[in-house]
Amino acid sequence: MRLLEMMNEVVFNANKPWDKIKNTQVKDLAYNSSKCRDGYMFIAIKGESLDGHKYAQDAYEKGCRVFILQDDVKLNEDAIKLFVKDSRIALSKISSNYFGNPSKELKIIGVTGTKGKTTITNYLSTVLNHAGLNTGVIGTNGTFYNGKEERTANTTPESYELHRIFRDMLDSGVKCVSMEVSSGGLMMDRVKDINFDVAIFSNLSLDHVGPKEHPTFENYLDCKAKLFTLAKHGIVNIDDKYANQIIEKATCDIDTFGIENKGDIVAKNIEYSRELDSLGVSFDVATQNEEFNTYICSPGTFSIYNALAVISVCRYLQIDQNTMLDALKSAKVKGRVEVLPVLDYATVIIDYAHNGVSLENILQTLKEYDHNRLICLFGSVGGRTKLRRKELGDVASRECDLCILTSDNPDFEDPMDVIKDIADSFKNSECDYIVEPDRKVAVEKALEIAQDGDMIVFAGKGHEEYQLIKGENLPFSETEVAINAAKRIMENKGKKQLS
Ligand SMILES: CC(=O)N[C@H]1[C@@H](OP(=O)(O)OP(=O)(O)OC[C@H]2O[C@@H](n3ccc(=O)[nH]c3=O)[C@H](O)[C@@H]2O)O[C@H](CO)[C@@H](O)[C@@H]1O[C@H](C)C(=O)N[C@@H](C)C(=O)N[C@H](CCC(=O)O)C(=O)O
Ligand SMILES: Nc1ncnc2c1ncn2[C@@H]1O[C@H](COP(=O)(O)OP(=O)(O)OP(=O)(O)O)[C@@H](O)[C@H]1O
């Protein structure tokens, strides 16, 4: 591709005369020197831990002759150096140009917020695909479209990856993209050159503030709000404490949703239902002109908010109402409040909740259903802040009847040290707990002690199919362990296996 085509709309100074730049061709671009090949352009980024400029020489040795730089670096005479103010911003524009600006031809819906991003994006793709709009998903669980699946390093991948994925989606017939937009992605300008059709705000609570993330909560909020300056239309959860601040910073028109009495669309007459293989909720949706009943097979108030976000998008995109309601009825997301129908006398749930806010949400939600004991199995990641262990321990010891403390990605830390920190929260609590560092044995124990009407939550792993131990992701499927253990238990009780 012509270098100048790639640099379209990028402001730069060059170390070479116009004639030389004008005729230069570039094969591809890379922001990591290890990915550089002969004829590539290298973009040097000043990162959180390293400075990409230090790797320019490495890129040169691999055959790069065009360099996008913020600072000058010493390179051989034949290197073309293009100086920009901010390399990450340049990366975004250059990537979009290189892949032919695919986001302009796709309908892109971005979801931001502390909780609910994965759930809303997946619900959206279920509904839109059901309505005949070929929809791809980008987020924490990876990238999915047309039967293709790709793991990505970030919830919101780097701009180069995003535009590459958009191009492939477009070429394979995708019309619409439902993507998670993390505050980190917004802070690092990964989505700067995306034309969002719709932006959604689910909620905001304290998270991702600290080293290598956001310096302050205000910065976290500002980054989330940025999405509403990149979109044509916004959809906001008006019941959230920070909704008005998001709306004030938005440059697009906004629709709102809420429960009971606020918002352009409102949920009311809420009823919970519990079956062996599902926990659901039905409610009426009221708009200015109409009212209709909705059912979703996910429990609690937060699921209603997630569904309202999806309903708002469908209304904006003019999706047929019956098609939408039909798809919402069965929309599920792997590892998000996923009910495993394995015991015929207790409800077993796998959920990704791995911080205080989300664990509190799921536990309080489950308590709204009739139950015997509420049992929670969980651990906390090793080698990270002890605050998360305390908040998880505090919430679980307050909300549950029994807890099973186990491992959750201990990495290089001794799982028993993490468990001891969590157990501190139980000192002044009436909640009993069992310690079992081996997560497989812990899951088996939890199912063995289950009684009639119990609700058992396996929290933390969600969709993850590994356990991070000593720097290595070792295969571990909580679902598989639970299904096998439950089969044995049902057999021993002389009962028919369920799944
Ligand atoms: C701390 C952080 O945010 N790091 C992100 C960042 O890496 P970085 O640019 O700081 O990388 P660095 O290691 O300092 O290296 C600087 C530059 O040198 C280059 N390099 C490095 C080594 C080498 O040999 N050659 C070379 O060229 C690197 O490619 C890079 O361009 O940019 C990378 C590309 O975009 C990200 O993959 C990476 O995310 C890491 C994996 C991460 O964990 N990030 C978290 C904080 C994050 O982004 N999370 C959000 C979800 C949370 C939220 O809601 O905000 C997400 O969207 O995933
Ligand atoms: N709207 C919501 N409000 C509060 N909690 C929620 C909401 N939706 C889901 N949850 C809870 O948070 C957990 C994570 O949900 P989800 O993965 O959809 O959020 P996310 O924004 O993608 O989170 P993360 O950034 O941790 O991946 C769920 O398993 C559930 O327990």
The main β sheet shows up as: 11 strands, mixed
Overall shape: globular
Q: Total domains, how many? A: 3
Proportion of helical residues: 25-40%
Sheet/helix structural class: alpha/beta
Arithmetic mean pLDDT: 93
Number of helices: 16
Spatial arrangement of strands, main beta sheet = 9-8-7-10-6-11-12-13-14-15-16
CATH names the topology of the largest domain as UDP-N-acetylmuramoyl-L-alanine:D-glutamate ligase
CATH superfamily membership of the largest domain, which one? Mur-like, catalytic domain
- CATH class category of the largest domain: Alpha Beta
Tally the beta strands. 24
Unique ligands: ligand UAG, adenosine-5'-triphosphate
Estimated radius of gyration: 25 Å
Characterize the structure shown.
ATP binds at residues 113-119. GO terms for molecular function: UDP-N-acetylmuramoylalanyl-D-glutamate-2,6-diaminopimelate ligase activity. This is UDP-N-acetylmuramyl-tripeptide synthetase. InterPro entries: Folylpolyglutamate_synth_CS, Mur-like_cat_sf, Mur_ligase_C, Mur_ligase_C_dom_sf, Mur_ligase_cen, Mur_ligase_N, MurE/MurF_N, UDP-N-AcMur-Glu-dNH2Pim_ligase. Keywords: ATP-binding, Cell cycle, Cell division, Cell shape, Cell wall biogenesis/degradation, Cytoplasm, Ligase, Magnesium, Nucleotide-binding, Peptidoglycan synthesis. The protein is of the alpha/beta class and 499 residues long. The chain folds into three domains: 3-98, 3-Layer(aba) Sandwich (Udp-n-acetylmuramoylalanyl-d-glutamate--2,6- Diaminopimelate Ligase, Chain: A, domain 1), CATH 3.40.1390; 102-330, Mur-like, catalytic domain (UDP-N-acetylmuramoyl-L-alanine:D-glutamate ligase); 338-492, Alpha-Beta Complex (Protein-Tyrosine Phosphatase, Chain A), CATH 3.90.190.20. 33% of the residues lie in helices and 23% in strands. It is built from 16 helices and 24 strands. It has helices at 3-6, 18-22, 56-61, 87-98, 117-130, 159-171, 183-187, 217-226, 243-249, 300-316, 321-330, 356-367, 386-399, 415-423, 439-448, 478-492, and strands spanning 13-14, 29-30, 41-43, 66-69, 80-83, 107-112, 135-139, 142-145, 148-150, 176-180, 196-201, 231-237, 253-259, 265-274, 279-286, 291-296, 338-340, 347-351, 374-378, 402-405, 432-435, 455-459, 466-469, 472-475. The strands form four sheets. Strands 9-8-7-10-6-11-12-13-14-15-16 form an eleven-stranded mixed sheet, with helices on both faces. Strand 3, helix 3 and strand 4 (66-69) form a beta-alpha-beta unit. Helix 5 crosses helix 11 (321-330), helix 12 runs parallel beside helix 13 (386-399) and helix 15 (439-448) packs parallel to helix 16 (478-492). The chain starts with a helix and ends in a 7-residue tail after the last helix. The site of adenosine-5'-triphosphate has 21 residues, from helix 5, helix 10 and helix 12.
